Amino acid sequence: NNRTFDFKAFSEARIMNGLLFILLDEIKGKTTDELRGFDLSAFFSELGITQRLSETRLNGLNQISQQLKNLCI
After folding, report:
1. How confident is the model at residue 45 (pLDDT cuts 50, 70, 90)?
2. Distance between first and last Cα of the chain
3. CB count, 10 Å around CB of 44?
4. What is the DSSP letter of 39?
5. Using CA atoms in the order 16, 64, 25, 8, what is the torsion angle rounded to 10 degrees?
6. Distance from C-alpha of 43 to C-alpha of 37, rounded to nearest angstrom
7. Could you give the count of Cα atoms lying within 13 Å of 72 in the half-sphere of its Cβ?
8. Distance between CA atoms of residues 35 and 65, nearest Å
9. pTM over cut 0.70
10. What is the pLDDT of residue 1?
């Protein structure tokens, strides 16, 4: 599938806006197949960010990851 998406996101929390900026930059222009294979948790872990986040923020990122996967079905 060659569909691509143009995502926009905003959070009232500045830290989440920063994380969203990093995420959106990474997934920009990816096809549904590429997004289907994208591991958001691994991406943020590789950047050394995951271990510095609260459980609430990690849950928020997990919800975003699930929404990405739902779009690719």
Report:
1. very high
2. 10
3. 21
4. -
5. -80
6. 11
7. 19
8. 10
9. yes
10. 56
